[in-house]
């Protein structure tokens, strides 16, 4: 095994005798050759055993040989039992054993460090099992990223094994190149990526939006982290969304704080071999979200933008959000969705003109590739399904593009048409002055009707222009161009004096709004598409 050198022999002997698998031994020797980790487990084990055997044969031929270090003691002396060659529980450590025992170690055992992750779970059978799960889910993808979740106690076992290596090298008077190893996750991906890529027929790509993940657990050793909670209680704090305080991050944080001597009081070094392999609890697939944008018109005065549910009871049977999303969910085969829009209208307000911009995030979609013709047919299917809404300019967009819908919302303008009633009779000349008012400043205290979901505040808003249209003695229509976010209903009736000025105060009579339409939302996103 050309990647190993003379300085690695004590580490190999120690770990092999302790029950560490060949791939973990390579990690602790900082072997960076990815190809070497992909060699079969049995082949690697034989190579390590031969590596030690060759060394023993050399010693027999040459007699007692000392390694090239500053004033090193002879190997025979090093292998003799010394007072400091006893660990905290009084047992003779593995490095004091003879070479024959080391050669016999590790074979057929569950690795005492990775708990089998770099053993059984690198084999072709497990790779096929993962790929069967992926293929059965029927996702569309052109690449994948592989992630793995490991039991937190693996970090504890790695620390114990590394302390054993450090103590071994110190006892032998040998220098340790650096206080580091190849990370288990990194080595596992070196092994598993080529196999998954070949089986799935697509490359592994760290930037891919399609993720294949495996979650490992090892119930037999779950309690091995618990001593850290006593030693470092500040690292383990309950969280609402966590079932256990012993998360990987908490354990790693505690291991950074605990001193070596305190650690050795509670945990064997090197760690002992478990009876059972890890369990692959979950094999999951997840596709990155797809975003669809467009504009909608709402023609009903009895349709909310989003589901209207109060105290768990649905008030109306449908919503704009649902009428659009049900078709997208079915075609994209997504798990769920998130709807957003450039403002919102009340349940009794229509949205006319070129419509209101909206975007839908489709979470974990199975299908992600759509042609322009397919998107047009999808838009038509939405429009054919209901006379309450219509959708236009439906298109696939990026996550970053959605930000443009929310940019400078308060600087945007919106045009409305309001049917207004007055208690006192009016003539055309009574309302004509409204046409001459420009840039009217309003102070709007949070309306009573939305106070349950909006913070109490006074908002300054602008009415840019108004144009009146006389109907009869008690009715007229008012066309308004306003700053986005203006409460139009409250501007008409005054909301018990919470909006000042208002149409009632301007006309010096009681006014109320009977109908309201949004005639345009002046936004340049999403881009207009040709019919």
TrEMBL record:
**Main subcellular localization, coarse class?**
cytoplasm
Q: Enumerate the catalysed reactions.
A: uridine(55) in tRNA = pseudouridine(55) in tRNA; uridine(54) in tRNA = pseudouridine(54) in tRNA
Concerning its family, UniProt says:
Belongs to the pseudouridine synthase Pus10 family.
GO molecular function terms here? metal ion binding; RNA binding; tRNA pseudouridine(55) synthase activity
Keywords linked to the UniProt accession? Coiled coil, Cytoplasm, Isomerase, Metal-binding, Mitochondrion, Nucleus, tRNA processing, Zinc
Tell me what this protein is called.
tRNA pseudouridine synthase Pus10
Q: Establish whether keyword tRNA processing is in the entry.
A: yes
Q: Which residues form the Pus10-like C-terminal domain?
A: 291-522
What are its E.C. numbers? 5.4.99.25
- Name the domain of life this protein comes from: Eukaryota
Q: Which gene encodes it?
A: Pus10
The record lists the membrane-crossing segments as none
């Amino acid at each position: 095994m050309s990647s190993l050198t003379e300085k690695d022999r004590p580490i190999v002997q120690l770990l092999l005798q302790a029950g560490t698998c060949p791939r973990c031994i390579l990690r602790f020797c900082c072997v960076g050759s990815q190809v070497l980790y992909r060699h079969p487990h049995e082949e690697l084990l034989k190579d390590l055993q031969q590596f030690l055997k060759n060394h023993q044969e050399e010693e027999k031929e040459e007699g007692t040989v000392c390694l090239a270090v500053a004033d090193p003691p002879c190997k025979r002396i090093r292998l003799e039992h010394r007072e400091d060659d006893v660990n905290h529980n009084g047992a003779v450590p593995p490095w004091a054993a003879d070479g024959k025992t080391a050669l016999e170690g590790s074979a057929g055992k569950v690795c005492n460090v990775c708990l089998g992750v770099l053993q059984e779970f690198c084999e072709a059978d497990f790779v096929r099992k993962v790929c069967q799960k992926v293929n059965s889910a029927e996702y569309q993808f052109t690449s994948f990223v592989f992630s793995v979740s490991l039991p937190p106690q693996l970090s504890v076992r790695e620390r114990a094994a590394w302390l054993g290596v450090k103590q071994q090298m110190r006892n032998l008077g040998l220098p340790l190149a650096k206080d580091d190893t190849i990370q288990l996750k990194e080595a596992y991906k070196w092994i598993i990526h080529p196999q998954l890529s070949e089986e799935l027929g697509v490359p592994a790509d760290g930037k891919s939006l399609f993720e294949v993940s495996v979650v490992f657990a090892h119930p037999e050793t779950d309690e091995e982290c618990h001593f850290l909670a006593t030693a470092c209680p500040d690292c383990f704090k309950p969280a609402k969304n966590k079932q256990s305080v012993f998360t990987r991050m908490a354990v790693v944080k505690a291991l950074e704080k605990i001193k070596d001597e305190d650690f050795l009081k509670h945990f064997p070094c090197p760690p002992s071999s478990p009876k059972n392999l890890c369990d692959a609890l979950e094999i999951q697939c997840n596709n990155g979200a797809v975003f669809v944008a467009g504009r909608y018109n709402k023609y009903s005065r009895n349709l909310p933008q989003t589901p209207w549910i109060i105290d768990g009871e649905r008030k109306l049977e449908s919503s704009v959000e649902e009428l659009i999303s049900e078709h997208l969910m079915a075609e994209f085969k997504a798990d769920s969705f998130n709807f957003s829009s450039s403002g919102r209208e009340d349940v009794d307000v229509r949205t006319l003109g070129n419509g209101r911009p909206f975007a839908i995030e489709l979470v974990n979609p199975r299908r992600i590739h759509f042609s322009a013709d397919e998107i047009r047919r999808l838009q038509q299917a939405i429009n054919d399904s209901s006379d309450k809404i219509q959708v236009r300019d439906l298109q696939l967009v990026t996550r970053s593009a959605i930000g443009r819908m929310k940019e400078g919302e308060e600087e945007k303008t919106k045009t409305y048409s309001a049917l207004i009633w007055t208690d006192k009779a009016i003539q055309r000349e009574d309302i004509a002055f409204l046409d001459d008012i420009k840039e009217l400043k309003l102070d709007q205290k949070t309306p009573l009707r939305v106070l349950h979901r909006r913070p109490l505040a006074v908002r300054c808003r602008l009415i840019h222009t108004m144009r009146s249209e006389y109907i009869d003695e008690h009715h007229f229509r008012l066309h308004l161009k306003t700053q986005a976010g203006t409460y139009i209903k409250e501007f008409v009736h005054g909301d018990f004096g919470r909006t000042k000025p208002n149409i009632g105060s301007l006309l010096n009579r009681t006014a109320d709004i009977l109908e309201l339409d949004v005639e345009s939302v002046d936004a340049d996103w999403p881009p207009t598409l040709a019919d």
